[in-house]
Amino acid sequence: MAADSPLKIVEGGSLTAQQKKDLLNRLARIEGQLRGVQKLIALATQPSDVDAVAQQMTAARKALDRSFVQLLAGAIQTQAGQATDLEEARASAAHLAAMLDKFA
């Protein structure tokens, strides 16, 4: 698959197709931000250029953090809504809470 071709969104029980599409769009914007940071670094000649790089890196990091929250929120909504009983909902919630504890 070419780097610029769109990804095929697969239906499943983890996230809805719309949640996946929203996350992929957000990640594409972050990817663009990171390319901009790379250019800023390559062209940096003045001390103030380092400030601009730091500012853009911080913005990209925060955007990635927001996408992580979006991922977990989407998983909570989707998986809780698809649970067939209370025990399954609890197990799903426990798994997502463990992810939050591990990765956040």
TrEMBL record:
GO biological process per UniProt: negative regulation of DNA-templated transcription
Keyword DNA-binding: yes
InterPro entries per record: Metal_Tscrpt_repr, Metal_Tscrpt_repr_sf
GO MF assignments: DNA binding; metal ion binding
Gene3D superfamilies according to UniProt: Metal-sensitive repressor, helix protomer
Keyword vocabulary terms for this entry: DNA-binding
UniProt similarity note: Belongs to the FrmR/RcnR family.
The protein, known as: DNA-binding transcriptional regulator, FrmR family
